[in-house]
Amino acid sequence: MMNIAENMTNKVTEGVEIVVPAPAFEGNSMNVSTDVNYFSITPDVLSPWNTEIYRVDNGVLAPTPSPCSSLTISFEPYKPSETSPVVLSEELQLLQRAVLIGKMSDKAIEAGWRFYENGIVFDEEQNASDYSITSQVADNGLQVILTIEQVTTTPNEGDTISFRYVASKDLPTPPFTDAQGQFTVHYSQDPQIGVRRPQL
Fold it and tell me: Which of 65, 147, 154, 177 is the most exposed place for a label (fewest CB within 10 A)?
C-alpha cells in the first residue's frame, strides 16, 4: 500500500530551504513525500517582481508571507536502516515531489494581474533532463503551480532551475484568445530555484 504524505514545515532564514523527506515504511505501507509550499507574488511593470513565502510550522500556515531571497529544494535520499531494511528501487525513490503554489498577492489582484498561459517560461539553456518540471495556471490565472519530481541525481553543489513568471494586467476573461483583443504580457526578472539530491 502506498500513501502520499505532505511535509508541512519549511525553514525561513535569509534564504529558504525546503526538504522533501525520503520515503518511509510503516508496516507494509510506504509513505511517499509530497512537499507543498505557498508563495505570494507581486508583479510590477517597471520594478523587480516580489516573491514571498508563507511560512509553515507544524502544519500551520502563517497568515502573512515572509521575504524569500533564495530557494533551495533538497530531496532527501532513502537509506535502509535496522528498523526499515527494505532496499527501494530508484523508480520508487523518485516518487518524491515538491509542489510550489504561487498566488497573486492582494495588491496584484487589485491591480488586475493574472498569470498568462502556463504562468512560467524556462530559460532556453535550462537542462531538465535529470528531473521533471511542470507548471500550470489555476484559479482563473490567480495561481501558478510548479511541480518538481523525478529528481535522479544532481551535482554535489546542486542544480539550478532558471525561469521567469509570465503575467498580464489586461488579460481578457479566460480562456485567453487573441480574438478577444490585444493585451500586454510582462516577464519577471530571472528568479532561480536550487535543486539537490544529496548522495549517501
Answer: 177
Alpha-carbon distance 102 to 69, whole Å? 15
**If you search the block for the grid coordinates 535569509, which residue do you land on?**
14
CA 159 to chain centre: 15
Q: Residues 156-182: pLDDT tens digits? A: 778 888 889 999 987 666 555 555 566
CA–CA distance, 176 with 170 (Å, rounded to integer): 11
Classified as helix, coil or strand, 107 is helix
Say whether pLDDT at 1 is over 80: no
What pLDDT, on a 0 to 100 scale, did the predictor assign at position 142?
A: 94
Whether the CB-CB separation of 144 and 168 falls below 8 Å is answered with: no
Contacts for 130 with CB less than 8 Å, ≥ 6 apart: 151, 152, 153, 154, 159
Could you tell me which of 154, 162, 146 has the C-alpha nearest to residue 74? 154
CA 61 to centroid of chain Cα atoms: 16
User: Cell 498568462 identifies what position?
Assistant: 116
| Residue ranges with strand state E in the chain | 2-7, 11-12, 16-20, 24-26, 29-42, 50-53, 56-57, 60-61, 66-67, 71-75, 97-104, 114-122, 132-138, 143-149, 159-168, 186-187, 192-196
d(CA 44, CA 102): 15
Give dist(CA 44, CA 185) in Å, integer.
11
